[in-house]
Design goal:
Elements lengths: L2 H20 L25 E11 L4 E15 L4 E16 L8 E18 L7 E10 L3 E14 L4 E16 L1 E17 L4 E14 L8 E17 L2 E10 L11 E2 L2 E2 L5 E10 L2
Antiparallel strand pairs: 1-2, 1-14, 2-3, 3-4, 4-5, 5-6, 6-7, 7-8, 8-9, 9-10, 10-11, 11-14, 12-13
Length: 284
Amino acid sequence: MPSSVVRPFGALSKFVFAALLLAPAVARADDQPFLTLDTTDIEPEFGHELEQNFGWNTGLTHSAYSEFEGESEWEYGFSDKLQLAVSTSYAWEREHYHAFPDITAQSGSAWGGIEGEAIYQAMNVYFDPIGLGFKFNAVAGPSERGIEARVLLQKNFDNDRLRFAANIGGEFGQEKDGTWSDVSALTADFGAAYNITWEWSAGLEFNVAHGYDGLLLDGNAVPGPTTYYFGPTVQYVAHPWTASLGFQAQLPWSQDPAHSGVQQGYLAYSERFRVGLRVTRDFY
């Protein structure tokens, strides 16, 4: 090939390569840089993903406490509008009361049961003014059974690098502590995340949970504790793998009208700190 033709194409290739290096990072459609809330991004049709979550909760007011949690989940894109998932969870905890230092610490493990989940994407954040979705899940296990429904909202800015997300909903079911009792909760989760580079994202997450003794649906529920958590999350994407790490602290705004379990603004029987790690593998 004549050198007069080679030179322009060589210069063009260098320009394209430099432009790719300097171009702003665009968020992937399946990138979810949050640990405690969902975006409206879902798996594409026939796409599927394996997800493994690890959690460490610690810091009860009256005891030395550690709980290690795990959850394994499989997600499947039934269509471009509907994502289905099934998961199972398990936990191990150890607690040693400060008031009884000579007593042996109590420990034990538990299986959380099986959980099914469906997310319907009503509006796509990449083509519509906002992202809108509806999440439904049901859990059945040895000590918990119930349903949850949430509205998912999402808005992206700056070429999809900056994301805001909100989840608002409720949980209704039963918990077993010797005997089964009805419980409910209203939850609101908010998050903001920014894609710093092609691979790295950083975000902040804020969670509010207001519990009830009894079922809200029958009008006999008694207000229970309200807790607030806040903390940062970082994520690294190396497709098809993704790893996310987050930390949250309980904020001193808790309320507990039914049991008065609040000390210095913290709910005494709810962990002070949470650490979460998520690893996912896409298959499409």
